[in-house]
């Protein structure tokens, strides 16, 4: 099968997200200039650089009360900071709850019954139960083609890891059991891994 996106795929559901999979989930927490906290998951998320460490997430929708974007991007534009919380399998239901199209000003931490913890390098809350969290300073927001497509880039200024997930000097991904996004309404959990050495490595 081959199709051109502008012509449509002819399938009952769009296969694009299912092809680009699995995708890590960035659970983005922000605090607006008015002090309101927001928390929302984004599956167009990834790390993009080592030195300095940098991440990105893309927002692809909008809300009527947020001038063509969503709460997360609107609040990052106001304050210049955000935090990426890592979603473990144990937090899947709370993460899903925070994905709702709630009105601006709703505190998703409280709505999903999540405990807040303070960030160290930025004025923002983070998910206390998250296995890891990345405090970020905005570097740029890039507008993409499309009605409401923007990519937010940030430099990581602080890293939180829960001690129980550090095993043998490594962040133990299999103990975390990170949630990943597949296509459609489907998710998966990382439960196994294997290692390979690159050519030339001892």
Automatic annotation (TrEMBL):
Domain annotation Flavin reductase like: ranges: 18-172
Pfam family, one: Flavin_Reduct
An annotated Gene Ontology molecular function: oxidoreductase activity, acting on the CH-NH group of donors, NAD or NADP as acceptor
Entries under Gene3D superfamilies matching the protein: Electron Transport, Fmn-binding Protein, Chain A (2.30.110.10)
Record protein name field: Flavin reductase family protein
Organism, scientific name: Roseovarius faecimaris
């Amino acid at each position: 099968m081959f199709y051109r996106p502008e012509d449509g795929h002819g399938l009952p559901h769009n296969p694009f997200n299912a092809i680009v999979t699995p995708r890590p989930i960035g659970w983005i927490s922000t605090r607006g200039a008015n002090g309101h906290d927001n928390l929302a998951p984004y599956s167009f998320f990834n790390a993009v650089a080592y030195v300095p460490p940098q991440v990105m997430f893309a927002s692809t929708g909008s809300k009527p009360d947020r001038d063509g974007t969503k709460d997360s991007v609107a609040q990052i534009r106001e304050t210049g900071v955000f935090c990426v919380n890592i979603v473990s399998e144990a937090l899947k239901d709370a993460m899903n709850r925070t994905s709702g199209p709630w009105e601006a000003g709703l505190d998703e931490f409280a709505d999903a019954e999540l405990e807040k913890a303070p960030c160290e390098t930025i004025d923002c809350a983070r998910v206390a139960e998250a296995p890891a969290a990345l405090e970020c300073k905005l570097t740029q927001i890039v507008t993409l083609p499309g009605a409401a497509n923007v990519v937010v880039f940030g430099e990581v200024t602080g890293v939180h890891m829960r001690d129980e997930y550090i095993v043998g000097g490594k962040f133990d991904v299999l103990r975390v059991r990170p949630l990943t996004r597949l296509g459609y309404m489907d998710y998966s959990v990382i439960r196994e891994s294997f290692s390979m050495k690159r050519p030339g490595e001892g």
